């Protein structure tokens, strides 16, 4: 357990359950279970959009305080799977997740789980920087404000910006509109904003694809710094990036389903990153990481 | 909101506007495409017709303003605003009670359309499932209502608000309700347009921080859409101020010589008072009507300028 998040993270009706940390916070049946080393455990997860099966039978473990990368060709369902980890898929009409998504052993799609609370614990950074049309300060303060977090707001904003390696660049213009920042700064602001609500996990969907190499380098350094405190899952199309920052890599591909003739994403293999890149078990992985496919 | 056609493209576009837009598009395409002389000639003819129409419209407006200024000049002074209506002493008559009546009626309209119109827009745009047949039905009918002639709302107001279920009588509140119904579709459509212009990444960004849909809408989306919503409200209010026809049916025709109140007694408004003066034979009252027209025009131009200023000032490219 990285830190004790306050008990009011999840508003299950039975407030009697002693809530110590995120595990308990999301635990629907009784007191906190024994701490697993895996933050997520997925068993045979399928995601549908309406009738279309987008992701099929994915089983994988995402370990604690590590960076896990999802790679694979476009349309193989990386974003879809990532969004199912913090229930952002709930917002898409017709999207359906089946199978088990266990978060610290708790089924995240269980009946008592409130998706809004899930997202306070599992944050997300998007492909395109999406600061709010407000001041830099208000961007970072938004999360703590709506969650009514206790503590000094100024301090929370400062420490989030510091941890996002942005403080020195913006400390003199906190009241300026975030739209005046560079793309790379905006993306780090979005990371600071996600950190400010003290999540346990940060999901990043191609966080650097809209950034120049220098900004990309900064964000990558930041990820390596942040993994000491957070579990990070990142989707990337950049092989070098996956190789540079991630501890584990999951390679997905698109399989044509015989019966329906539709294209569905499947997990090919998941392993330590260096194995995926130097010694993959599957030929498809080898072709992809060496650039022969995709 | 990011382009000028933001309003015209969605809000209550009557047939003639749609035809004009289509024609304009054809012309642009024709001029941009190379070759095909025939198309080009046709394009040029169409441009000429459009320009002719525009010139006619502008000339008509200019003529009207000039006439009103010249005809109303003798009465364009402070007494115009402070004197009460009178037929016996036409040279001393003024618009005091009508201006107060307009303030009452429009105040009521604003109180009604802001919560109802913006609320409906938020519901339809952010919460309602667009695939639900009921919501589609509501959606379609709002668009249709925006095109209904105002006199129909007058009859509706007479039957249901002045008489019928509400039975308010011929009071300012009845005028407010009637005009609010009339401009509500405009407010809803404009507000929806403004909400839709806020990119979904703002919603996703808020929700990913653990905001509820309501928090995302009230704290991020609505503030971002605020200038657009405000512009829509102002334009709707401008329209309500200028309306006379429906008010004639719901009571705003009396020669009120006392300051009006909201729920009792007769009332009149600027446009209906102009109408009352204009249809009388006395020369002094004709002058007074012209002076009233000047006041109306100045007021409406001011309000519309504010709306345009706000739109340009806060326009955002995402
Ligand atoms: N909102 C949606 N509604 C319907 N289908 C969707 C939706 N989002 C994604 N899909 C489909 O699901 C499949 C997987 O999409 P997804 O975006 O997860 O792929 P991806 O691996 O992230 O691709 P990319 O690398 O291009 O981002 C695709 O076939 C896509 O068309
Ligand atoms: Mg994607």
How would you describe this protein?
The complex is a heterodimer of chains A (294) and B (318). With 294 residues, chain A is of the alpha/beta class. Chain A has helices spanning 21-26, 78-84, 115-121, 136-146, 153-163, 167-170, 183-196, 213-226, 239-245, 273-278, 283-289; strands spanning 38-49, 52-63, 67-71, 95-103, 106-107, 122-125, 201-205, 231-235, 248-256, 263-272. A ten-stranded mixed β-sheet of chain A has the order 5-4-1-2-10-9-3-8-7-6, sandwiched between helices. In chain A, a hairpin with a 2-residue loop joins strand 1 and strand 2. In chain A, helix 4 crosses helix 5, helix 4 runs parallel beside helix 7 (183-196) and helix 7 packs parallel to helix 8. The radius of gyration of chain A is 19 Å and the shape is globular. By secondary structure, chain B is mainly alpha-helical. Chain B has 13 helices and no strands. Chain B has helices spanning 5-10, 15-32, 37-72, 79-82, 96-127, 133-145, 150-162, 172-196, 200-207, 213-242, 245-249, 270-278, 283-314. In chain B, helix 5 runs antiparallel to helix 10 and helix 5 (96-127) packs across helix 12 (270-278). Chain A binds chain B through residues 86, 88, 91, 93, 116-117, 119-121, 123-124, 126, 128, 130-133, 142-143, 146-147, 190, 193-194, 197, and chain B through 129, 131, 199, 201-202, 204-212, 215, 219-220, 223-224, 316. The site of magnesium ion has 4 residues of chain A, from helix 2.
Précis, in short:
The complex is a heterodimer of chains A (294) and B (318). By secondary structure, chain A is of the alpha/beta class.
Question: How are helices and strands ordered from N to C of chain A?
Answer: HEEEHEEHEHHHHEHEHEEHH
Major beta sheet summary of chain A: 10 strands, mixed
Number of strands of chain B: 0
Whole-number mean pLDDT of chain A: 86
The low-confidence runs of chain A, each spanning 5 or more residues with pLDDT under 50, are: 1-21, 27-36
CATH architecture tag of the largest domain in chain B:
Orthogonal Bundle
Largest sheet of chain B: none
Give the structural class of chain A: alpha/beta
Can you count the helices of chain B?
13
User: Of all protein chain pairs, which has the greatest interface, and how many residues does each chain bring to it?
Assistant: A-B, 25 and 20 residues
CATH class of the largest domain in chain B: Mainly Alpha
């Amino acid at each position: 357990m990285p830190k004790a998040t306050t008990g009011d993270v999840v508003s299950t009706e039975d407030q009697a359950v002693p809530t110590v940390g995120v595990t308990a916070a999301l635990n629907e049946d009784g007191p906190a279970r024994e701490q697993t080393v895996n933050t997520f455990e997925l068993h045979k997860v399928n995601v549908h959009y309406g009738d279309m099966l987008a992701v099929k039978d994915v089983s994988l473990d995402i370990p604690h305080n590590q960076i896990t990368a999802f790679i694979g060709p476009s349309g193989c369902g990386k974003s879809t799977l990532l969004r199912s980890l913090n229930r952002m898929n709930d917002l898409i009409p017709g999207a359906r997740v089946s199978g088990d998504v266990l978060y610290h052993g708790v089924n995240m799609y269980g009946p008592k789980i409130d998706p809004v609370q899930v997202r306070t614990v599992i944050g997300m950074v998007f492909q395109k920087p999406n600061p709010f049309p407000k001041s830099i300060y208000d961007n970072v303060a938004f999360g703590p404000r709506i969650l009514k977090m206790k503590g000094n707001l100024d301090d929370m904003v400062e420490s989030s910006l510091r941890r996002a390696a942005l403080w020195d660049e913006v400390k003199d213009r906190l009241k300026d509109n975030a739209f005046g920042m560079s793309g790379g700064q905006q993306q780090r602001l979005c990371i600071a904003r996600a950190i400010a609500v003290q999540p346990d996990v940060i999901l990043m969907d191609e966080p650097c694809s809209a950034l120049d190499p220098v900004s990309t380098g900064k964000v990558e350094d930041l990820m390596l710094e942040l993994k000491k405190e957070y579990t990070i899952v990142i989707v990337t199309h950049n092989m070098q990036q996956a190789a540079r920052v991630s501890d584990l890599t999951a390679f997905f591909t698109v399989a044509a389903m015989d019966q329906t003739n539709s294209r569905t994403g499947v997990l090919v293999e998941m392993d330590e990153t260096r194995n995926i890149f130097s010694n993959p078990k599957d030929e498809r992985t080898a072709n992809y990481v060496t650039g022969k496919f995709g | 909101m990011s382009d000028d056609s933001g309003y015209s493209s969605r809000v209550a576009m009557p047939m003639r506007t749609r035809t004009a837009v289509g024609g304009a598009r054809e012309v642009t395409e024709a001029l941009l495409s190379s070759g095909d002389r025939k198309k080009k000639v046709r394009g040029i003819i169409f441009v000429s017709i459009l320009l002719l129409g525009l010139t006619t419209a502008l000339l008509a407006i200019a003529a009207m303003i000039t006439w009103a200024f010249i005809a109303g000049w003798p009465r364009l002074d402070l007494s115009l605003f402070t004197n009460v209506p009178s037929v016996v002493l036409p040279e001393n008559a003024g618009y005091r009670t009508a201006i107060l009546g307009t303030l009452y009626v429009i105040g009521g309209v604003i109180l009604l359309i802001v919560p109802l119109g913006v609320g409906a827009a938020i519901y339809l745009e952010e919460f309602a499932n667009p695939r639900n047949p009921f919501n589609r039905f509501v959606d379609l009918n709002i668009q249709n209502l925006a095109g209904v002639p105002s006199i129909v709302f007058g009859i509706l107001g007479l039957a249901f608000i002045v008489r019928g279920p509400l039975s308010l009588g011929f009071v300012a509140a009845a005028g407010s309700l009637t005009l609010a119904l009339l401009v509500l579709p405009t407010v809803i459509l404009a507000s929806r347009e403004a909400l839709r212009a806020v990119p979904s990444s703002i919603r996703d960004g808020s929700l990913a921080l653990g905001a509820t849909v309501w928090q995302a809408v009230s704290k991020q989306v609505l503030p971002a859409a605020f200038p657009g919503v405000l512009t829509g409200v102002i334009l709707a209010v401008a329209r309500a101020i200028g309306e006379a026809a429906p008010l004639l049916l719901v009571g705003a025709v009396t020669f009120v010589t006392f300051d009006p109140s909201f729920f009792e007694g007769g009332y009149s408004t600027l446009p209906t008072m102009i109408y009352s003066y204009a249809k009388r034979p006395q020369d002094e009252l004709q002058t007074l009507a012209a002076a009233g027209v000047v006041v109306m025009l100045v007021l409406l131009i001011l309000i519309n300028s504010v709306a345009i200023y706000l739109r340009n000032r806060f326009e955002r490219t995402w």
